[in-house]
Amino acid sequence: MHKIERPYAVVAAVIIIVVGVGCSSHSQTVAADFTLPSLSGQPIALSDFNEQPVVINFWASWCGPCRFEMPELAQKYDDFRAAGLVVLGVNVTSQDSIEGAAQFVEDFDIPFPILLDEAGEVEALYNASSTPTTIFVNADGIITNRHFGPMTDEQIDGYIRALVDAS
């Protein structure tokens, strides 16, 4: 009796594996659109940059690790902006202040748009529960990477090169 049960068990296992593989999907997460006011007062939407690679960096002026990585992120933006790279700095103003954000931008001479998330809605939308958090979105609007915490120059370079090369 064990000789009959074992082949049926093997066949059943193979069917489950084949059906399971056939039904699995490698879903890709589409970056949710949002619109926030910029530090200069102009509303900016993620969808304004369709068909461009976008880096969304959530930060706060009091965040030590944000201060560590921001100069590198600004440099990479300068290095890759001719290739179409967009960087959006999203200040988590719900945990910061507009004055603090403005001073941070001045201190670090940030060349890319700074958006103010005063209600924390975009922070929640992207699950950016810690700062810094960085989201990498390809030109098709798909999130390709998420990085929680500070990034080294090498990490920033690797993420951005992959994003730009794929565009």
Question: Care to describe what's here?
Answer:
This protein is α/β, with parallel strands linked by helices and 167 residues long. The chain has one domain: Glutaredoxin (3-Layer(aba) Sandwich). 41% of the residues lie in helices and 19% in strands. It has five helices and seven strands, in the order αβββαβαβαββα. A five-stranded mixed sheet has the order 5-4-3-6-7, covered by helices on one side. Helix 2 packs parallel to helix 5. The radius of gyration is 21 Å and the shape is globular. The protein starts with a helix and ends with a helix. About 11% of the residues have low confidence.
Describe the secondary structure blueprint for this structure.
Elements: H1 2-23, E1 35-37, E2 43-45, E3 54-59, H2 64-80, E4 86-91, H3 98-108, E5 114-116, H4 121-125, E6 133-137, E7 143-148, H5 153-165
Helix pairs in contact: 2-5
Could you name the CATH homologous superfamily? Answer: Glutaredoxin
* Number of individual domains: 1
What is the percent of helical residues?
40-55%
Which band does the percent of strand residues land in?
15-25%
Instruction: Give me the strand/helix succession.
Output: HEEEHEHEHEEH
By DSSP, the count of extended strands is: 7
Shape-level CATH architecture: 3-Layer(aba) Sandwich
- Write the CATH fold name: Glutaredoxin
**Cα shape:** globular
Low-pLDDT residue spans: 8-26
> Taking all residues together, what is the mean pLDDT?
87
Derived from helix and strand composition plus strand pairing, the structural class reads alpha/beta
How many helices does DSSP assign? 5
Instruction: Report the top-level CATH class.
Output: Alpha Beta
Q: For the terminal residues, how far apart are their CA atoms?
A: 60 Å
Please compute the radius of gyration using only Cα atoms: 21 Å
Which strand order does the major sheet show?
5-4-3-6-7
